[in-house]
Design a protein that fits this description.
The complex is a heterodimer of chains A (426) and B (147). Chain A is an alpha+beta fold. Chain A is built from 13 helices and seven strands. The radius of gyration of chain B is 21 Å and the shape is elongated. The N and C termini of chain B lie far apart (53 Å). Classes of the chains: A alpha+beta (426), B alpha+beta (147).
Chain lengths: 426, 147
């Protein structure tokens, strides 16, 4: 096995980088500010934060700007930055009921306690191009030459808002649990649920709990515990999570859920104050949450529901819902369907792994390819010799790996994003 | 998070206060050249956000949150602050402000007033967000009888 050295030098690589930067600055428009990205393209920054596993809205906006809108690249930048930081500590576990929801819909319960709150969404309106947005800002002439549409205004300015003190809405899971329809967790499973009462119910306030795994520090072992699954799915690549979740509904799986609820809101981030010992709030993290109801197939004598759960940084309902499907699918522990195989799912959905493994194909593979060529030529030469020996068929024997595929065991083994894309020739 | 004189409440209010405001107060405190020791340099760090998922009620690690802590000693009184994001100056200023209020420094009343404004702004923002989202509450109707 050989390796390839780049002899062109740093100057040439610098020129390539300069060209990349030039692309960002091309055109006559003003340079995008990080504030603009943070304020106006929050879906992009949310995706970068979610896949980066790092909540930092302004840094995510910076990463999106630097990556020229490539969300996976932006997530990569966030993970690389993350790897330079120390850990302060873990927060006290926050309950979903503490979510300050600005949007909450329940497709399962029409009259859900707390109400169906649409919040900011265009789910129920037509998706048509809005040409008024073209040339909206700062006196720039709009596409149709009409200056009147230039200055944006707050469409909610004239709302007559209701009074009342802010509160949180009850989690639908608790509504179902109160009705005895929730499949209670297995107390004996892996020593879990140490804080549970004798009847298996947990008041959710007990400080005693099993320390959850942290997949950013310890690699996932298979079969994974559910806390590992949820953490890995939470920072999975949006498209991959969506595609695999969709596969289960498309027929390559058994989970076609009813969503108990989908919520968008803010979760408090609390640490223990070093002087007072109180749990104190540092900030609120915007999250998207999804719960799905699926039948428990193996408990026909006592029909109850099983559930899938999805939670993701930022506003990303599609990913949270797909995560819910994958969580439910993995609990089925099926052997035949991709979405039910945790090893397949978790090995596939991480954007940094796929980023590194796919992108590394652009790096020089001269030695690998030369060895493939040598093999192909040797096979062809042998075939010609066989043909010259008056072989009736004249076909070479397919006794070698002629598809030319290199062994696919060179995938990155580390969470380190730098290592994930490194390497020359395999 | 109502009482700026309470240390835990003050921590939350400092974390929610604009960094420029904190810096102005810190500058006025430090202008008197008190004995300052930096016990913890303001550097961004990670706080792992844990969530108790509602199915099995087991905690899991959702992901990390970037925050910047800082700790100082001001004329022998310690101050601690942590602000969201990468914000070294705000964190340092917040720690100075925390120590100043703890020591009942001359600037305390102004700080308390500013932090109270932060508390009011936070409540107003929550109330507005709550009211706006409730203004979009809808009732879905099922129509089996009509079909």
């Amino acid at each position: 096995m050989g390796y390839v050295a780049v002899t062109a030098g740093e100057e040439i690589i610098g020129r390539a980088e300069d060209l990349f930067e030039k692309q960002r600055l091309e055109g006559d428009s003003e340079t995008l500010s990080v504030d603009q990205l943070d304020d106006q393209l929050s879906r992009l920054t949310a995706q970068a934060m979610s896949e980066g596993g790092l909540y930092a809205p302004r840094l995510a906006a910076l990463a999106v700007k630097q990556a020229q809108g490539d969300t996976v690249e932006a997530a990569f930048l966030l993970r690389a930055y993350r790897s330079t930081l120390e850990r302060w500590e873990e927060t006290e576990p926050v309950d979903p009921d503490e979510l300050f929801a600005t949007r909450r819909v329940s497709p399962a319960y029409k009259d859900v306690p707390g109400g169906q709150i649409l919040g900011p969404t265009k789910d129920y309106t037509q998706r048509l191009l809005d040409f008024d947005l073209d040339g909206e800002a700062n006196g720039t002439e709009s596409a149709d030459g009409d200056d009147a549409a230039d200055e944006p205004s707050d469409p909610t300015a004239d709302w007559d808002l209701p009074d009342g003190e802010p509160t949180t809405v009850q989690n639908v899971m608790e509504v179902l649990r109160d009705d005895g329809l929730v499949h209670d967790p297995d107390e004996t499973a892996d020593g879990a649920d140490e804080g549970a009462d004798a009847d298996g119910a947990d008041d959710g306030t007990d400080d005693e709990y099993e320390e959850p795994a942290d997949t950013t520090r310890e690699p996932v072992t298979h079969p994974p515990d559910r806390d590992e699954v949820l953490q890995e799915l939470a920072r999975g690549e949006t498209g991959a999570v969506t595609a695999l979740g969709y596969s289960a509904m498309r027929g390559y799986g058994q989970v076609h859920p009813t969503l108990a609820e989908v919520r968008v809101g803010k979760l408090p981030v609390r640490i223990t104050h070093p002087y007072t010992g109180d749990a104190v709030r540092v900030t609120d993290a915007e999250v998207t949450e999804s719960e799905a109801v699926v039948p428990v197939y193996e408990k026909r004598e006592d029909p109850q529901f099983a559930f899938g759960y999805g939670l993701s940084f930022g506003r990303n309902e599609r990913k949270a819902i797909a995560m819910t499907i994958l969580d439910a699918s993995i609990q089925l522990d099926g052997a035949d369907e991709p979405a039910e195989n945790p090893e397949f799912v978790l090995d596939t959905v991480d954007g940094m792994d796929s980023f590194g493994f796919i992108e590394h194909l652009k790096l020089p593979h001269y030695v690998t390819f030369q060895s493939i060529l040598d093999r192909i030529r040797a096979i062809r030469e042998r075939g010609e010799i066989d043909g010259a020996d008056a072989d009736v068929d004249g076909a070479p024997e397919a006794d070698a790996d002629v598809d030319g595929a290199p062994e696919a065991d060179d995938r990155p083994e580390t969470d380190d994003p730098v290592a994930a894309t490194g390497g020359d020739d395999d | 998070m109502d009482d700026p004189r309470n240390r835990s409440d003050r921590f939350e209010l400092i974390a929610a206060t604009d960094g420029d405001v904190l810096e102005r107060f810190a500058d006025s405190v430090l202008a008197e050249e008190p004995a300052l020791r930096v016990l913890q340099e303001p550097r961004p760090q990670l706080v792992m956000q844990r969530v108790r998922e509602p199915v099995e009620r087991r905690p899991f690690n959702l992901g990390e949150v970037v925050a910047t802590p800082a700790e100082v000693s001001l004329d022998g009184t310690r101050g601690f602050a942590m602000v969201p994001g990468k914000a070294e100056r705000a964190a340092f200023s917040g720690a100075v402000v925390d120590a100043a209020v703890a020591a009942d420094h001359a600037v305390t009343e102004k700080v308390v007033a500013a932090l109270s404004r932060t508390a009011d702004a936070y409540k107003d923002e929550r109330r507005r967000e709550w009211a706006e989202s409730r203004h979009t509450t809808v009732e879905f109707e099922t129509m089996e009888d009509d079909l």
